Amino acid sequence: MNNRFFSSLALRNIKSNKQLYIPYLLSSTAIIMMLYLMASLLTNKFVQERSSSLSPLFLIGTIVIGIFSVIFILYTNSFLIKRRKKEIGLYGILGLEKKHVAKMLFFETLFTSLLSIAAGLLAGLVFGRLVFMMLNYLLRLPTDITYSSSPITVLATVALFIMIFGITFLYNVSQFTFANPIKLLKGKQEGEKEPKGSLILFILSLIFLGWGYGISLTIPDPLSAISKFFLAVLLVIIGTYLLFISGSIFILKALKKNKRIYYRPGAFISISGMLFRMKQNAVGLANICILASMVIIAVSTTVTIFVESEETLENRFPYENNMKLFGDPENFDEMNSRFFNLQERLREKTETMGLEVTEIESYRYESLSGGLQGNQFVIDGNLAEPEKSINMMVLPLEDFNKMTGNSYSLADDEALYYHSTKTYREDELTVGDKTYRLTEVDNEFSEEMDLTESMALVLPDISHLMNIQADFKKQFPDTNYFTIDAEIGWNTSGTEEEKNEFAEQLNDEYGWDAGGMNLYNSRLLQREEWYSTNGGFLFLGIFLGLLFTIGTVLITYFKQVSEGFDDREKFQIMQKVGLDKEMIQESTRSQIVWMFLLPIVIATIHVSFAYPIVRKLLLMFGVTNETTWLMSFIGVVLAFAAIYWMIYRVTSKVYYSIVK
């Protein structure tokens, strides 16, 4: 037998199993297209040169899509080979040797992989410009990103998926190489034993879920959220699988023991059918639940970040113009003189440009990093353990009153303070060699103070900051860490063009490239980069959300088809003993409700418990509006549920068309 025979046989097999192969080819094509588009963004020269933040984002997206591609194609391929086992067993009975069957599967894999890769690359070229138009809109760049494709991107995409499809071929061959053809032929008729519910697994599922939820609910600050987020996700994923595998069996067995529920024709069929296949059902439901959770979190958070871009920009840069003055640890008088002289110089420069200062804020401060031991602030070994250290900002009362518009007065041994976690309840605090009696105030300093445990201390005058600097320098004589710095922020009148020209001149004189002891930052000049980053996040969130939605849709479809083929013979037997079609529909409807509601409900619960840790992560992007995230969350849940409902309506019809 020559290769032409096996290739013809492979094509005939694909056509005869088109109900399975068409969704498989479409899903493979979609995933290849998405990876190719993301890789095109990663290697695009304009993206690399225009914004330093976009390339790392698209690299993460490419890696995530690549990993998902491997898992998803292997997972969907397992459904195909499961349906083919009886057919492969029949080939063995008819006299085909295993090497002949392997050759036939090779051509099937070759045809499907070539078609998927070619279609995916072609779709990527066709839809590439549309995707780049969307990216241009989200990033708000002054110049459009031009779509381009490099040979390296094409070769890398082709190489990855050749490897993935090669693995599927080896897996398919392994399914019958060591199996008896008779066993393959009768494998579908052997049935499954009733699964045994494990109380230990059920308890473990609750422990893992409770552990993951507990991390989210007790997370102290955003910096801790970064390190513990992935641990919480891993624990919830493990808990979800154990919950579906063990908890669902307990529920079904409890329903089975209830005679009033179980001994009704529709309930009898649906409960018995789901119980005997619950191991497979549980994994599928858990996969759908996890993918749904990913979609909801990815899309809702990135939408929130993008919608709040302007607010977060203002939180990051409170004024249109912001100047940081770095202090000299050996010469405070020089920095203090520069602090007042620079304000006058900036006013003069503003007037020279034909503008007017409409609002200004300036203050000097000292930044310390250490720990609280009782009622004493110390700088010691805690610095080696960031989770035990806090940041302290010390300001003079004169600058604090100007900054806030208050008129506080303090004695020489008094101080105002703010503690971000509200856990410091002492009446006194010793800093350096001096002890202060404390009065608590609200946070009128910076939103960034709430990112990690922080403390602000307002002292009677600037001399107290100098004394603290001197005290700690005695303790640590070999360091230049202790400095008194300053911030100046101001707004001006004028048009956007005039303000932008003013900002560019100051940036040339005091920006990063200029060096020196003063550093200028402009909200106007940073807006482009800010929207680029946030737009990149939104694009990545939508892209990954679409990817996970495709995964959910395909898992749902293949699961319904697989269940349909498994149930067809059983329902045909039931029809022969008098069960009508209406009863079959009633029994399948309860399974659909079970399959539809459970993953969505559990996913919503997961995301609800994830809110505290997601909220902390959003603070790192400057997002302080909880209403926006809540509305995004509700909107994404409803949109995903609607898509899922429509897909399930379609797949349920496919299921019923098979079983009837």
UniProtKB/TrEMBL annotation:
Is Secreted among the key words of this record? no
Annotated InterPro entries:
ABC-4_Integral_Memb_Prot, ABC3_permease_C, ABC_permease_BceB-typ
List the membrane topology term(s): Multi-pass membrane protein
Q: Which residues form a coiled coil?
A: none
Q: Does the keyword Transcription regulation apply?
A: no
List localization entries: Cell membrane
Where in this chain does the record put each ABC3 transporter permease C-terminal domain?
62-181
**UniProt protein name:** ABC transporter permease
Q: Name the species this protein comes from.
A: Paenisporosarcina antarctica
Species lineage: Bacteria, Bacillati, Bacillota, Bacilli, Bacillales
